[in-house]
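Q&A log
Question type: sequence-to-structure
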Amino acid sequence: MTRLSVRRESWKLAQVFTISRGSRTVAEVVVAELHGGALRGRGEAVPYARYGETVDGVVTALEAMGEAVAGGLDRAGLQSAMPAGAARNALDGAFWDLEAKETGTSIWELAGIEGTPHPIVTAYTLSLDTPERMGAAAQEHATRPLLKIKLTGDGDLDRVRAVRAGAPKAKLIVDANEGWTVQHLRDYGTVLAELGVALIEQPLPAAQDAALAEVPHPVPICADESCHTTGDLERLQGLYDAVNIKLDKTGGLTEALKLKAEARHRGFKIMIGCMVGSSLAMAPAMLLAQDAEFVDLDAPLLLAHDRQPGLRYEGSIVYPPKPNLWG
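Response status: OK
Response body:
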C-alpha cells in the first residue's frame, strides 16, 4: 500500500526578491512524499497567492488525498481527482518520481522524451528595483547569456536601458507580471525591440488579454498568468506569441507535457518557467526545457541555500536532475 505524507518547508532567499505585486524574503513550499515500501517519491509545489493559493490550503488539499492514494489512486486518476494548481503538482511529481524508482526506468523514458538529456541555459532574474540598482545588478551578472528583468509600469524604459548598459551582450526578457497598461505596451514596444529585448512576458492583467489583438508586437509577447492548462490555448490564439509553462499552474508534469505539445501544434513559442522554490520543484521542468525557446529555471540560484542534493548549476547552465534528487 502506498502512503502519502505532506510537509511544508521555508527556504530563505539570498536577498529580497521584488516583482510588481510585492516583495518576499522566503520561499514557502509544500512537499508531497509517496512511500511505497522502501522507495520514496517526492514532489515540491509553491502555492501562489495570485491564484488564490496558500500553504495551509495546499497542505489541506493534499492531506485529503491520503485515503485515495492508499486506495490505489495513480497519476492518471489524479488528473481528474484534483484541479490544476500547486497541490496537484506536488502529488503528480511524487507519482512520477516513485514510478521511475519502482520500474527502474529513467524519467526521460517514462515521459516519452527521445534523445539524451542535455544541460540548458536558464535565464537569471533581476529583481524589480531602481534603474541604478538594476543596472548595477546587470553589470554583476553581465556574463550570463540570458537575463530576465522584473518590471512594473512607469519608469520601466529607464530600468531596461540601465540593464542593457550593464549587460550589453545578454539576451533580455522583460516581465511586467500584469503591471502594464495598454498605453505602456504601445509606448514601450518599439523601444524595447531597439534595446534587443527578445520577449515581453505578461504585460497586461489576464482579464485584459483581448487588447493584445489591437496592439503591435514588435517584441513577441508571452502569456504567463493567462496560461495554465491546455484548455487556455484556444482563447490565447492570436493574442500571444508564446506561453510560459509552469508546473504549479498546470498541476504537474502530466498536464504540462500535454500543454507543451498542443502549444507547439498551435504555433506558440515555448517558455519554461517556475515559481521560487528549490531544485526539487525545478527537476520535472527540466524535461520540458530541453527544446524550449526560453528557459527560466533559476529559482535555486535565488536561495541562500538550495536543497541537497540539488540541481547542478554552472553559471547559467543547469544540468538534468539525477535520480537522488528526483526521477
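Response note: Residues 3-105 form a domain with the Enolase-like; domain 1 fold (CATH 3.30.390.10).
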